[in-house]
From TrEMBL:
Keywords: Membrane, Transmembrane, Transmembrane helix. This is DUF2812 domain-containing protein. The chain crosses the membrane at residues 120-138, 144-163. The keyword Transmembrane helix applies.
Length: 265
């Protein structure tokens, strides 16, 4: 059985999906790009994945211990391989295992996103060129109908790639916040207004949200911060609420919004 999934190789989401199929008797047997090959087995497998340097994969696949090497896939950025192993031993199936290195998963996800965006751009160029040639060569009504069908198929394929890239970007946002790796990321500036406060908040303890900049404060104890972040307004308020007094008001304005009415620096 073959299944197509656009998932971060070695991610927690991918492992959940693979193990869900394994519980129904479908064990991973191979990988080609985003196509997953499964074989039906009589026992229940527990599947794991790990990032391994390319030079160590050969030695790893030769060894036969508790785990079987089910599949390997080469990743270009970074230059590693994702090795999928599995076991049908009861003690392994029942074991609790934590996810792999989030920084490495972030690098793999960024490489997959770049590849997906390049594919989308290529499809757009090919589609525009194809329909341009088709329009100039159309002579009958049937050809017009065929071109409309081709256009609909092209839009569906493009939407599928776009939706996959969007879901991948959502996972990248989570990984960036977990690892605090924001290099190369576009961070929208959120405007955070807090009042009243005796002193400013300790932004060093809030680095997981992003980059903080104190803009100014008023005589009434109001503080204005600019926060470059990938977090939403509700997430920022949720993190700040335990750090300020109960009577303090926290307003978060998006980078497209306006300051609260009556705010005076």
């Amino acid at each position: 059985m073959w299944r197509y999934r656009f998932l971060i190789k070695g991610s927690e989401q991918e492992l959940k999906w693979l193990n869900k199929l394994a519980q129904h008797g479908w064990c991973l047997a191979g990988l080609r790009g985003n196509w997953y090959h499964f074989k039906h087995v009589k026992t229940t497998f527990r599947i794991f994945s790990e990032y391994v340097p390319s030079e160590l994969v050969a030695e790893m696949t030769k060894s036969s211990h508790l785990f079987q090497v089910l599949a390997t896939v080469q990743v270009q950025k970074p230059d590693i391989q994702v090795v999928y192993t599995g076991s049908d031993r009861p003690e392994v199936v029942a074991a609790q295992v934590s996810p792999g290195d989030p920084k490495m998963r972030l690098e793999v996800a960024l490489g997959m996103r770049d590849k997906a965006m390049n594919t989308i751009n290529l499809l757009i160029y090919l589609g525009v060129g194809f329909f341009g040639v088709l329009i100039f060569t159309m002579q009958t009504g049937n050809q017009l109908l065929i071109s409309q069908i081709y256009m609909l198929i092209g839009v569906c394929v493009l939407f599928r790639f776009w939706w996959s890239a969007k879901n991948l970007q959502n996972q990248i946002v989570i990984l960036r916040r977990d690892t605090r790796e924001y290099d190369g990321a576009w961070l929208p500036t959120m405007h955070v207004y807090i009042e009243p406060l005796k002193d400013g908040i300790d932004t060093d303890t809030l680095k997981s949200l992003g980059r903080w900049h104190l803009v100014g404060h008023s005589r009434k104890g109001g503080y204005w911060y600019d926060l470059q972040t990938l977090a939403t307004e509700s997430e920022i308020k949720q993190v700040l609420r335990p750090m300020v007094p109960t009577e303090t008001t926290v307003n978060v304005i998006s980078w497209l919004g306006l300051a609260p009415i009556g705010w005076i620096i």
